């Protein structure tokens, strides 16, 4: 198997629902990061063997094959193909894994992975419509439990004993870290400004400066009357896109590129679909086992903050260091554009590794239906 590297990773700012990016078609939002990826690397897009694009709600403006239409919107040669992947919230992290597998196997040499979601234009759940995606046989297997991520997150909080104060304090931490990172310019090199009819969007929009546990305590629970979860300690509904260039070290040298990280290992795991969001725990165990690394070897973790109990349960089970986990804030503060989030998190991670000289980084993402991806990358010194 060939060694695989990430040569560049870029993202848009993450926009709030009905915020600065809401007027931009998702194919055009994707085209902006594809164009930036080509410009920053200096590659001719004609050499790209495939574009693998994550997207969850493939209806309306994101219907048919948003991966292919993103390539066309970017003005790339018609010879460059594109496809779309849906592994729920982990769609673009899975897109990266597929890109790596294609290059690692020798079938392809240069692949772009990424994803997009415009939740302002295509609301969450729009693809479901009036359907019942689980079907009666799956529902019967779980005593006709109506699968729901919010309810699952409440069950996680109950199982691990996280009270309202714990989840609210974690949410405050996310906003504080994100604000500090934004102020320090930690996101500047990775973000591609997005021109809109109302001017350029240049920064993540979701950070709530001055958020306190006392303020969050006033918010009503969203899923259970006596629950702990509400809009302030859950991921934000967002718009955004990201793109990652995947190749081999040899091809990178040929193209005059300096890779950022090497792909060390990836894993995907299934878990209880009722709790639904605990998959990052076995996925992390699996990828560590595959790579021969320990949790202590990892210098930075990106654990998607779908709901505050998700990273809290992951921390409790893995023994990972809180200070190394989501050090730049997470989806509670920075947003969660579903199919684009995996690539957004990886972009944040690889830039953070390079900025801080950290050797190993691990990214993991809980996903609807009870699955999760985990990926480890290593900084190239």
UniProtKB/TrEMBL annotation:
Similarity comment: Belongs to the thiolase-like superfamily. Thiolase family.
Active site, per annotation: 89 (acyl-thioester intermediate), 336 (proton acceptor), 366 (proton acceptor)
The keyword Acyltransferase appears for this protein: yes
PROSITE patterns membership: THIOLASE_2
Gene that specifies this protein: fadA_8
Keyword hit for Amino-acid biosynthesis: no
EC identifiers of the protein: 2.3.1.16
One GO molecular-function entry: acetyl-CoA C-acyltransferase activity
Thiolase C-terminal domain sequence ranges: 258-378
NCBIfam families: AcCoA-C-Actrans (TIGR01930)
Protein name, entry field: 3-ketoacyl-CoA thiolase
InterPro entries reported for this sequence: Thiolase, Thiolase-like, Thiolase_C, Thiolase_CS, Thiolase_N
UniProt keyword list: Acyltransferase, Transferase
First-tier enzyme category under EC: transferase
Top-level division of the source organism's lineage: Bacteria
Annotated Thiolase N-terminal domain residues: 4-248
Pfam families reported in the protein's UniProt record: Thiolase_C, Thiolase_N
Organism the protein comes from: Nocardia aurantia
């Amino acid at each position: 198997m060939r060694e695989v590297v990430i040569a560049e990773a870029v993202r848009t700012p993450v926009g709030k629902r009905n915020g600065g990016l809401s007027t931009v078609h998702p194919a055009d939002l994707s085209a902006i990061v594809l164009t930036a990826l080509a410009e920053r690397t200096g590659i001719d897009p004609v050499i790209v063997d495939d574009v693998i694009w994550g997207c969850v709600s493939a209806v309306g403006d994101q219907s048919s094959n948003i991966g292919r239409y993103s390539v066309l919107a970017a003005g790339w040669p018609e010879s460059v193909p594109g496809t779309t992947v849906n592994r729920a919230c982990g769609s673009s992290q899975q897109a990266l894994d597929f890109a790596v597998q294609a290059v690692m196997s020798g079938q392809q040499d240069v692949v772009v992975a990424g994803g997009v979601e415009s939740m302002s234009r295509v609301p969450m759940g729009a693809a479901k419509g009036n359907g019942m995606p689980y079907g009666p046989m799956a529902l019967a297997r779980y005593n006709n439990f109506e699968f729901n991520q919010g309810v699952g997150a409440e069950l996680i909080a109950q199982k691990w004993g996280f009270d309202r104060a714990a989840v609210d304090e974690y949410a405050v931490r996310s906003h504080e870290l994100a604000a500090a990172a934004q102020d320090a310019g930690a996101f500047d090199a990775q973000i591609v400004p997005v021109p809109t009819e109302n001017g350029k969007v240049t920064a993540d929009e979701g950070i709530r400066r001055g958020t306190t546990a006392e303020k969050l305590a006033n918010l009503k629970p969203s899923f259970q009357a006596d629950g702990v979860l509400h809009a302030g300690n859950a991921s934000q509904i967002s718009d955004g896109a990201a793109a990652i260039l995947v190749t081999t070290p040899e091809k990178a040298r040929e193209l005059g590129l300096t890779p950022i990280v090497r792909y060390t290992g990836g894993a995907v795991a299934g878990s209880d679909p009722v709790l639904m969001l605990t998959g990052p725990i076995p996925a992390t165990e699996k990828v560590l086992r595959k790579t021969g690394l320990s949790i202590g070897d990892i210098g930075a973790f990106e654990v998607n903050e779908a709901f505050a109990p998700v990273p809290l349960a992951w921390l409790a089970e893995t023994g990972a260091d809180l200070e190394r986990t989501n050090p730049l804030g997470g989806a509670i503060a920075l947003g969660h554009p579903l199919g684009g989030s995996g690539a957004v998190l990886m972009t944040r991670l690889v830039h953070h590794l390079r900025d801080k000289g950290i050797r190993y980084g691990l990214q993991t993402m809980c996903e609807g239906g009870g699955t999760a991806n985990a990926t480890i990358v290593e900084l190239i010194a």
